[in-house]
Amino acid sequence: MRELVSRAIERFLQSESSYLVESDLLPPDVMLRTAARDLQKPLDELVEDLGAWLVRQNEIWRLLRFCGSDFLDFLLRLDELPERMRLVTDDIAFPEIALTRGKDGLVWVTLESGSPRWSALLSGLLRAMADDYGALCVITRGDDGIRIDVSDLDFAEARTFRLSARTAAP
């Protein structure tokens, strides 16, 4: 599985920044740290960009869009994501996700364990999914978790989603 993750990071770096990984199949953390240093970009920012890039991969996008009819529905089912990931692979130790929805409408996402890089990756994924659903929101990552303030669920037209890529348009 490490090989799969390393290949994904390699594809991300090549497609987003034309960065060429010098050594074939370095451990993922080493690849990201080296790229962040060479690109003079904060590591968390690079990992957040990786999260957004993952959403643009059709297979992953389809898996994520299947999780909710709109962005708020997607957010409220986010705690199911680790189990969905285990359906695809059980080699990645994806941390458990806890959600809290405040009376003020804010959604707080906390990761139960794991590297702080997961929070950065999830932030990028959430930003990309908000755009995909056409939602206007502010996503802020802090030490205590990820804060999502959804202002408008229908701010822009959402990307069309069909259960099957072969389904004809109506």
How many separate structural domains? 2
Sheet with most strands: strand arrangement: 1-2-4-3
Largest sheet: 4 strands, antiparallel
Strand content: 5-15%
Oligomerization status of the protein chains: single chain
Radius of gyration: 16 Å
State the shape. globular
CATH architecture of the largest domain: Alpha-Beta Complex
Helix content: 40-55%
Order of helices and strands: HHHHHHEEHEE
Number of helices: 7
Can you characterise this structure?
This is Heme NO-binding protein. With 170 residues, the chain is of the alpha+beta class. The protein folds into two domains: 2-41, no CATH class; 69-152, H-NOX domain, CATH 3.90.1520. It has helices at 2-17, 28-39, 43-55, 58-65, 71-76, 81-88, 116-133, and strands spanning 97-101, 107-111, 136-142, 145-152. It has a four-stranded antiparallel sheet with strand order 1-2-4-3. Helix 1 runs parallel beside helix 2 and helix 3 (43-55) packs across helix 7 (116-133). The longest helix is centred in the C-terminal third of the chain and has 18 residues, at 116-133. It is globular, with a radius of gyration of 16 Å. The chain starts with a helix and ends in an 18-residue tail after the last strand. The mean pLDDT is 83.
